[in-house]
Amino acid sequence: MKTFGWLVLVAVTVPAYLLAQISGQVKDFKSGQFLKNAEVFIDNTLVHVTTDDKGYFMLEGLQPGIYRVGCAAHGRETTYQTVRLEKQEKYLLFLLKKDAGKKLTDKSLTAEVLKAIVSQNNIIPGWNERFITKTAQFKYIDEENGRRIYGKFEADNLALGYQVTGHVISYTKEQLLYLLQFYQMKGTEEEQKLWEKNRFITYQYGVNHFLESILQNTYHLNGYKITDEHGNAVSPENFLTTGFSGQTNSLNLKGKLNVTMGTIEEGYESWIEADGRIVFSDVGQILNSDSVRIGGVFNEKSLSFQLPNEYTPSVEKKIFLLEPYFEKAYLHLDKPYYLPGDTIWFKAYMNYNHLSLIESLSTVLHVELIEQHEGGRILFEKKLKIDDGEAWGEFVIPQSYSSDYLAIRAYTNWQRNYGDDQFFLKYLPIIKRSSNHIGERSELQTNNLVQLKFDKRQYKPRERISFSIRVNNELNQQVSAWMSVSVTDMSMVRLLNDSVVIVKTHTIKPPPATTRINYPLERGLTVSGQFFNEAGKPTMVSLTMMGDQLKQVFKFDTDPYGKFSMAGLEFYDSMPVRYSATLGKKLLYTGKLVFDQRNAAPLKLSWPAPVRNLERADFKIDKNTTLLNEVIIQAKRIAEEKREVNKPIIFRPFGEPDYIMEGSQLNYGAVNVIEMMRGKIPGLIINLNGIDYEIRFARAASFGQALSPLILIDDQPVGGSAQMALLSINPADVAAIEVTTRLNSLYGSTGANGVIAVYTKGGGLRGTFEEYESVKRIKLNGFATPAKFYGVNHKAYFIPPNSDFRTTLYWNPSVISSTRTGSDLVSFFASDSPGPYLITIEGVTAEGKPFRAEQLLEIAPD
Prior knowledge:
The radius of gyration is 35 Å and the shape is elongated. With 862 residues, the chain is mainly beta. The protein has 6 domains: 16-96, Sandwich (Immunoglobulin-like), CATH 2.60.40.10; 102-184, Nuclear Transport Factor 2, Chain: A (Roll); 189-317, no CATH class; 327-509 and 791-857, Macroglobulin (MG2) domain (Immunoglobulin-like, Sandwich); 525-569 and 574-595; 649-771, TonB-dependent receptor, plug domain (Ferric Hydroxamate Uptake Protein, Chain A, domain 1, Beta Complex), CATH 2.170.130. A 5-stranded antiparallel β-sheet has the order 8-9-10-11-12. The chain has a 5-stranded antiparallel β-sheet with strand order 48-47-29-50-51, with no helix packed on it. Strands 31, 32, 34, 35 and 46 form a 5-stranded antiparallel β-sheet that branches. The protein has 7 helices and 51 strands.
């Protein structure tokens, strides 16, 4: 038998107001006399009660769903009713007939009935002999359609630790109908452990476990491979609509799903299909069983392999299986403290209990900058894409920030299940006043295993500084490593005592014992929401959704309450999205799609006392420098033009262009697209220096930074240089060129110098991205695009003397030292400050071991 290493998730406690109950009375069929001590039970569960002296009963604490409720009493025929239970009490009346059948004495027929019900366990055959039938009492009645056998049997399942009572309602040539009652067996401590182990194995083969793993988006971790009827891979989370805590969930299906348990060498297979959707609880229990069909291992009928419907693994078992999937984040920051207006540069390192799961766990990291306001409030937040266990980004502190501290926090959604004390959290002093700097750290955190090799022995102000990094193991052998490097000026940035460093906080410690899973894995971005009609009521509609960065047009139906969810998406920054809704064949011009807002983890902060021992860096100002008065720039919103209803407009992801070239303005005789634009677009500067073009807008002027505008081809950003992107286009293919000279925040730092958008004749975008009243437009926030740190290049640009006093001279979140290709070269220019400079390196080796090193670099006088 193959053992498992699957992830198991736990039930969310259902609020009492969402539960329902079944009550009623049991009476004699002929006389109407109430029957006491009759047993009322729910089929295939542990739930059962007996009636009181007046025949009344009540089954409480039930989730809404479909149940088969049985009723049995001594000397009466067992009967049942199928109940669709809503969020209220259901009343049932059972009328039991006296047992008028004849005793079945044919032992071969008795064995035939039992064989049909018990059936053989083909998954774990050794359990067959551990299912022991103790009694079997069957009767028969000769009816118009033939002989019907009915009765009762009792058995002990010594493999799973249950006593099983089977109520056979009908056994004929055409029909087999029976109900099951389960009772927990009492055993020794060793027997209890064995039963729980076997129950857990059985559970892992079942449909409950499969649906629960879809709900938590962990089906890939559990080894499930899911395909449609044509063999195409399926991502079921895109068809999932989750309820609020304790409410039902639904999986919307339009065909059969084939499920292979990929972690099992034997390759057991199952399938599941439904009439529209599967409604299930938080523990995977199907609540609309009349509309769902299952097959294969999911439909294993052997009683030696049967669990009660409500079974979930024990907390201890879940904790044991959750432990390998623990992950945590750590952030390396460029400085220990900041000034208002500073940029906080950071690199995220993920650590895992098992490094082999680096590609299987979360791909979304939530990073929050929290202000010290009324105990704490999220000032900015970003979603970063985790790639190979890394991510990086930045925050800009508002110039007007006046509190003593900021806090930065990082965590994954999955990490929330282990408690918020597992999050990365660091308090950042914000310096605004001068005072004595007392109690600073004076000793460097050196590391003999991290070695720096400089290209020169000594450097002067404004000279280029270059070095490589070698990382060794304890045997002094070079190892591959991934690291982030910051260089700060110690004359302006002091050393602080800091316990939040990678070697102290990155290490995995035993995760806390968690008893519930509320937060699923994020294997990409999730977009979910609900559609409301013009009256504000949730409405089931068909939605069509498209976005500039989405790889396809999504067409799907919401659930009956207008809810939908799309998971596993990847898009960046603020993405414009267009959608339309149809009800039947009618296109809706009214109604509203409301997207779900992210529910951030609660803030539980303990702000430190204000720092009084740090000195604000005072920049040296040359005597020939003229200080300008403060200038306040106020923006005025441009009024949108009124347009007629249903009149088409062209939608541009970068906003309204400042200038458009089209038609006769396009010179198709030009040798390339750059020459096509030369002298035609106001403010666009094009210079030819030898064989290289300089392309920039007149307003772009920032020393040390790239000035080229962002190039879009058919609304898609193109990487690399502007020259190479434009030279790749045949002038004869150009339909139009549109430009915007302003800073475009939609594209992060790449849009800082304006946008040149080239539309090709074959692209089919310009003039066809039309919007009507029936097509709504919104914006969704995706992964944050990290900005690039630009240092000063004293060789390329003139910078006035005695004016370069940077606190952070260099920041690179992605430096690699490889045993095969060597180390990336770290290179930057010294400033006008004599320093010394502090080089701080943090990273992890290929084996996942964290390291940190600090080294001083003295600058020689000029």
